[in-house]
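Supplementary Data S3. Sequence and structure tokens for construct A.
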Amino acid sequence: MKIIGHRGAAGLALENTIASIKAAKKAGVDAIEFDIRMTSDEQFVLSHDQTLSRVSPHHHVVKDVASEHLADIVLHNGERLPTLTEALQAAGTTPVVIETKGSGWAAHLAKFLENYEPIDATVISFNHRELGRFAKLAPAVPTFAIERTKPFDAIQFAKQNKFTGVDMNFWLLNPLTYWMARRKGLQIIVYTVNFRWIAWFLNLLFPAISITTNHPHAMQFLRRKQSSRS
């Protein structure tokens, strides 16, 4: 079972910040997940919400503001709002899982990743149609359809659009959804697993999946379980 830090490591530092990414690396994750949105001048910055009100004193809507203005915003932890480039630099050689928010980003992200230095990146999104457009533009980049309520629809759409896999709420994972996804050759990520007993249970039943967690430091016991099996 692979461990993916959620929004960096949101249980250890302010989400989607350089500090959070560094905390995830220190915790020994297999990959670092973070959210991006496109600014009014078509640049990518890290943000989960449409506005910055939860992570800063400001209420700017990300898509309506130019990146040069967003660069001046100080977050609650004293950092500046990170760009995608800064996030990738902070992640270094650790694989990243980029969750894309909003719409209209497919061509811009495909171009960005094509021009960036070689990187181990996966792109995931709730916007399945936009993700499908991205997958056609960047077929070498792994893609996962995120789903919170309709796993079978997501599995079918992922198969039809040649995605790498599905990323579903862990409550949706059961023997049937697991079997159907694997039968169609899809990999599985589940979110957001923040309790050790849930991680233990999922690892017992579905050891081939990956979990996303705010607390990657608390999930290292999974490494010991895996080592004892080998």
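Construct B, processed identically:
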Amino acid sequence: MSIPGSHVTYLIYSICNGILFLTMYKKILAAVNEHLNSEVSARYAIELSRITGSKMFLCYIAEKGASEKDLKVAEDAVKRLFLKAKDMGIKIESIFDSGDPVNKIRKLVDTEGINIVFAATRREDVEKRFYSGTVARRLSLNLPCSVVLVRVVHMGRIHPGKILVPLKGRIDHIKERAYFTAKMAEAFGSKVFVLHITKPITKFFHGEIHLRPVEWEKRIPADISIFMEHLRKYGIIYERMLSPGIPARSITIEATAKRHDLIIMGASERSLLSSLLKGNPVEDVLRETPCDLIILKPRHEDK
């Protein structure tokens, strides 16, 4: 069981297609503020809570200088979300506090044993290059649990029928990434599209080589194959796609052309210097995504 002040995973299991699975999230926290996108982000968290049987926490941390109007808007949002979760049979708790959001949420994660935190990105996250220093970036870097950052594009639609999951060749925390994707797909009855962006193959004097789909299939990295195997075990319907090209551009073009409703990406591990020199695909997609975007920073230890 989870002990306050620690991050020991609950040893609780669920059965899917006759297979026993570890439930990774037993306590989910959604950070809510006066902005509408945070309420939409929290609704994604509520759906994950419903499908995993997790306890839900809603928190509003009033920052210094918050107006009475902001306080009232945030309070009303928390009330709506609370009632929605209660109607869905979710065990839920609401928390109001003031101060620095990152420090306060960090304290809640420690004392309550939170497994995953949802937060909406703000305008500054989209506009500010290399969004270090923003609340979203600080949460992703400083919390000891998994973190989900949600960029909301379609305010009135959070029932994704098609989820695009771009994957690089090497994947960390494969089990958690697959679990999170599977549970989000299960919650909404979505179909998953696994997209592997590859570098074009070139040969000296011959330029770029174009391979047939069957030839690309043979080049699927082992980590992506493992990820898809986990999706199969969870009973998730998915398609796999390979596309040579620039990652961010290929992702946004695919999402636009195929009218995907949600993109789930892993948080970038690149340093600031690397981002300056080579660019950052996650930040590029964050700015240009045509649909809602979830950036997952997984910290569950694979067992």
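Confidence is low (pLDDT under 50) at residues 1-13, 16-20, 204-211, 270-278. Residues 162-294 form a domain with the Rossmann fold fold (CATH 3.40.50.620).
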